[in-house]
């Protein structure tokens, strides 16, 4: 009865991090789909146009999944790009040349995908909800594909991307988990060795006791043998 109860508990609610991911993915689609549409009309580079089309299609599919989950768990979603996203779209529209548009397009979207990528990874690593775990898997594949495509244009300036940071809290937690696991293994080995030793000692005592009884029986039998009778 515990297994069904556990499974139910794992799909019953969403954490704040789960809900935040749904909001962020929805928010991303609200500007990345229009940005992809701009690429189809503003870019001269056929690869950039193709990347724009891929972003539109993929985010359209993700948006359907996001809205379905949000409706199921009563999560409020945004319905328009935020101020930063609106400024990025305005920057793309204002690009004076096709090549400048392509540069802005590739770099703005690459930076944005890098941010959401880490959020997806965090939820995938720790969510207790089965549906969110599956959604994070899908979103992770989509975002990684977009990052790869954007980088394939050769327009991404990696020096402008945020430097990765070390999450000391996560590292400490992982280290503690590994330490606990190691302690459990050591404890199991020690207990196993003690149990094995105790078993061997018990068997030795039983065998030694049996030998003593056998020897004692032999001596008793010898004592009971009739004395030699002198010949007549």
UniProtKB/TrEMBL annotation:
The chain crosses the membrane at residues 182-206. Keywords: Membrane, Transmembrane, Transmembrane helix. Coiled coil: none annotated. Pfam families: DUF4142. Residues 17-148 form the DUF4142 domain. It comes from the Bacteria. This is DUF4142 domain-containing protein. It comes from Amycolatopsis acidicola.
């Amino acid at each position: 009865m515990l297994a069904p109860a556990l499974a139910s508990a794992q799909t019953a609610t969403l954490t704040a991090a789960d809900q935040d991911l749904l909001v962020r993915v929805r928010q991303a689609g609200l500007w990345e789909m229009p940005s992809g549409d701009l690429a189809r009309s503003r870019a001269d580079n056929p690869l950039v146009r193709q990347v724009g089309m891929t972003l539109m299609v993929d985010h359209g599919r993700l948006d359907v999944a996001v809205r379905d989950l949000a409706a199921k768990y009563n999560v409020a979603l945004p319905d328009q790009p935020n101020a930063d996203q609106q400024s990025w779209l305005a920057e793309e529209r204002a690009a004076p040349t096709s090549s400048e548009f392509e540069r802005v397009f590739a770099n703005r979207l690459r930076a944005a995908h890098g941010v959401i990528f880490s959020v997806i990874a965090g939820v995938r690593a720790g969510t207790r909800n089965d549906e969110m775990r599956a959604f994070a898997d899908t979103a992770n594949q989509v975002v990684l594909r977009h990052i790869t495509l954007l980088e394939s244009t050769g327009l991404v300036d990696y020096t402008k991307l945020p430097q990765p940071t070390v999450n000391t809290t996560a590292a400490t937690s992982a280290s503690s988990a590994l330490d606990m696991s190691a302690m459990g293994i050591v404890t199991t080995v020690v207990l196993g060795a003690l149990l094995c030793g105790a078993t061997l000692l018990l068997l030795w005592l039983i065998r030694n006791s049996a030998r003593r009884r056998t020897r004692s029986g032999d001596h008793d039998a010898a004592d009971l043998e009739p004395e030699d009778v002198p010949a007549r």
